[in-house]
C-alpha cells in the first residue's frame, strides 16, 4: 500500500486484477535454479489449478532444451495464456513462435543506462525498433506485452513515449518494470498512473528493498490490472514479488479476488521441491511458522478465539493452524498438546510439564511431540513399555546398491529385516518398514536434516513428522551418523503412533 494515502490511492473491490506468473522464467533465473521440462509442466498445471491468467513459461532464446520445455507447456492447452520472454530482436520472436506460444513479452530498454550502456542504441532508434518488433509479433497473431526494462529508473517522459509507441504499434499492454527493485510506492504510483492513461498496464516488481508487494499494490492502485509475480517470490537476486503475497493482500485488504487461494500452499511446496529452494519458516502465507503459535499468551488467546492472533484463517490458503512447544509455551498450550495426544494430566502436572518444556526450550531446543510425551510420562508416572525399539542397525553404501539391516524389538519380540534403497537412509527405512509389516503403515510427512556443528564430524539433527490416520508425531534425534539419527527418529515416531493406538483419547472437554 502506498505510504502516502489519498483517496485515489486505494483499490476498489470491484477492480479486476489478474496475475501473471513468471516462476518458470524470472523464478528460474534465481541463482542455482534450473527446472526440467517435467518440472515446468507440473508447475504450470498447478498454476492453472490456482487460476493464474498468464504463465510465462521461459525464454525461447535460451536454447533447444528450454524450447522443448516451453512447447511441453503450450501442449497442455491450458486456459491460461502461455508466453515466452523475448529480447528486443526478431529472431527471439521467431524462436517463441516455434514453441507455439500464445504471446510474447518483448523486453526493450527504458532507462538511458540500458538504452545506451547495455543495448548501445539511442532513444529514437529504440522507439523505432520497438514499433517494428511489435508489428512483427502482431502480424503473427501473438498477444504482445512490451516490457520497458529498468523502467523505474527511466526518464518518465521517455517511458511514456516508449509505452505510447508500443501501444500505437499494436501491443496489447505495456509493463512498468522495477527491474532492480529500487523504487518506492510513490514513484511507482506516479509512473503507472501516467502509463495507465495511455492503455493497459502491468507491473513487474522486484524485492531488493523488500518493497515488492508494496510497489505491486501501488501499481494496481494507479491502474495496473496485471501483476507479474513468482511462486515463493523466487527470481533474480532478492526475487520477484511473491504470487501468494500479492494474492492474499489483494483479497484480505481490498476484497479483490485473483486466485483460488486454497491452492497456494500446494503450489509453494511443489515449487520448493522442484527448485530446491527451501521455504523460509517465517515467510508470509507459506512459511512453516505462518500459522504456528508458541508463546503462552498467543496460544492461550488463540485457544480462546482463533482470530485473536491471526489476520485470516489458515484454511483460506490451504493450511492448518499449529501450536508449537518451546521456551515460551504456557500451560494452555501444554494442556492443548497433551489433549491432542490423548494424555490426561491434572493441573499440577500440567504446570510441572509446562515448566520442564520451558526449560528444554531455554536450552535452545525445539520441543517436539516426543519430548513432550517423555516429560509427561515422567511427571505423571505413567510409564509405558515401548511398542517398537531399535536394537541394532547397520547400513552400507559403498556397493552398487545401498543396503541396510535392522534388529527391532516389536511388542517384546525380536524381528530382523533388511532393505535396499537409493541411499543408506532410504535402505534403512525400507528395512524398518519390512520388519514392521502392516504396523508401519504411517506416512512420513516431513523429513529435515540440520547440521548442528560444522565440519565433517558434524552432529546432525534429523526431525521427522509421521502421520497415521489423523494423528501426527514429530520427533528430533541428534547423532553424528545421519542414518542412525534418521532411523531412530522414525522408529521413535512409529512407536509413539502405535502406543497412541493402544490408549483411549482423553475426553475433549477434560
Ligand atoms: C527483463 C525483465 C522482464 C525483468 O525481468 C525485469 O525487468 O526485472
From TrEMBL:
Residue ranges occupied by any Pyruvate carboxyltransferase domain in the UniProt entry: 17-265
GO BP, one annotated term: L-leucine biosynthetic process
Pfam families assigned: HCS_D2, HMGL-like, LeuA_dimer
Keywords: Amino-acid biosynthesis, Branched-chain amino acid biosynthesis, Transferase
GO MF entry, a single one: 2-isopropylmalate synthase activity
SUPFAM superfamilies: 2-isopropylmalate synthase LeuA, allosteric (dimerisation) domain, Aldolase
SMART domains: LeuA_dimer
Family the UniProt entry places it in: Belongs to the alpha-IPM synthase/homocitrate synthase family.
Protein name: 2-isopropylmalate synthase
Organism listed in the record: Natrinema saccharevitans
Amino acid at each position: 500500500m502506498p505510504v502516502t494515502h489519498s483517496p485515489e490511492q486505494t483499490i476498489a473491490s470491484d477492480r479486476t486484477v489478474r496475475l501473471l506468473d513468471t516462476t518458470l522464467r524470472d523464478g528460474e533465473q534465481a541463482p542455482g535454479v534450473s527446472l526440467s521440462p517435467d518440472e515446468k509442466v507440473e508447475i504450470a498445471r498447478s498454476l492453472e489449478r490456482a487460476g493464474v491468467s498468464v504463465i510465462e513459461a521461459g525464454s525461447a532464446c535460451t536454447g533447444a532444451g528450454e524450447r522443448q520445455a516451453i512447447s511441453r507447456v503450450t501442449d497442455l492447452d491450458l486456459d491460461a495464456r502461455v508466453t515466452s520472454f523475448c529480447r528486443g530482436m526478431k529472431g527471439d520472436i521467431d524462436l517463441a513462435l516455434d514453441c507455439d506460444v500464445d504471446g510474447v513479452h518483448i523486453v526493450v530498454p527504458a532507462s538511458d543506462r540500458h538504452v545506451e550502456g547495455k543495448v548501445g542504441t539511442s532513444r529514437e532508434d529504440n522507439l523505432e525498433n520497438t514499433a517494428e518488433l511489435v508489428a512483427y509479433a502482431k502480424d503473427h497473431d501473438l498477444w504482445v506485452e512490451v516490457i520497458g526494462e529498468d523502467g523505474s529508473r527511466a526518464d518518465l517522459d521517455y517511458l511514456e513515449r516508449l509505452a505510447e509507441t508500443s501501444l500505437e504499434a499494436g501491443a496489447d499492454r505495456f509493463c512498468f518494470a522495477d527491474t532492480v527493485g529500487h523504487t518506492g510506492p510513490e514513484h511507482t504510483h506516479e509512473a503507472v498512473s501516467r502509463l495507465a492513461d495511455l492503455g493497459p498496464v502491468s507491473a513487474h516488481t522486484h524485492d531488493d528493498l523488500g518493497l515488492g508487494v508494496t510497489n505491486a499494490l501501488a501499481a494496481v492502485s494507479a491502474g495496473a490490472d496485471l501483476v507479474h509475480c513468482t511462486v515463493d517470490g523466487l527470481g533474480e537476486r532478492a526475487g520477484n514479488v511473491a504470487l501468494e503475497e500479492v494474492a492474499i493482500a489483494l483479497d484480505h485488504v481490498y476484497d479483490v479476488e485473483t486466485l483460488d487461494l486454497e491452492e497456494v500452499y500446494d503450489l509453494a511446496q511443489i515449487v520448493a521441491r522442484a527448485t530446491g529452494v527451501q521455504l523460509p519458516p517465517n515467510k508470509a502465507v507459506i512459511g512453516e511458522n505462518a500459522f504456528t503459535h508458541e508463546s503462552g499468551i498467543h496460544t492461550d488467546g488463540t485457544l480462546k478465539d482463533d482470530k485473536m492472533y491471526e489476520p485470516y484463517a489458515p484454511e483460506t490458503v490451504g493450511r492448518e493452524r499449529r501450536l508449537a512447544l518451546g521456551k515460551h509455551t504456557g500451560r494452555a498450550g501444554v494442556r492443548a498438546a497433551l489433549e491432542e495426544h490423548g494424555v490426561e494430566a491434572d493441573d499440577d502436572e500440567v504446570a510441572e510439564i509446562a515448566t520442564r518444556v520451558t526449560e528444554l526450550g531455554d536450552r535452545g531446543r525445539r520441543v517436539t511431540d516426543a519430548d513432550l510425551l517423555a516429560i509427561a510420562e515422567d511427571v505423571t508416572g505413567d510409564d509405558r513399555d515401548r511398542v517398537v525399539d531399535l536394537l541394532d542397525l547397520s547400513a552400507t553404501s559403498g556397493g552398487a546398491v545401498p543396503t541396510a539391516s535392522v534388529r527391532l524389538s516389536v511388542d517384546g519380540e525380536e524381528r530382523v529385516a533388511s532393505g535396499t534403497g537409493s541411499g543408506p537412509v532410504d535402505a534403512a527405512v525400507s528395512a524398518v518398514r519390512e520388519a514392521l509389516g502392516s504396523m508401519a503403515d504411517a506416512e512420513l510427512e516431513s523429513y529435515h536434516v540440520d547440521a548442528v556443528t560444522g565440519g565433517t564430524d558434524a552432529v546432525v539433527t534429523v526431525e521427522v513428522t509421521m502421520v497415521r490416520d489423523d494423528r501426527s508425531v514429530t520427533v528430533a534425534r541428534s547423532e553424528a551418523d545421519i542414518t542412525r539419527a534418521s532411523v531412530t527418529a522414525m522408529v521413535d515416531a512409529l512407536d509413539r503412533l502405535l502406543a497412541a493406538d493402544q490408549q483411549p483419547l482423553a475426553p475433549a472437554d477434560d
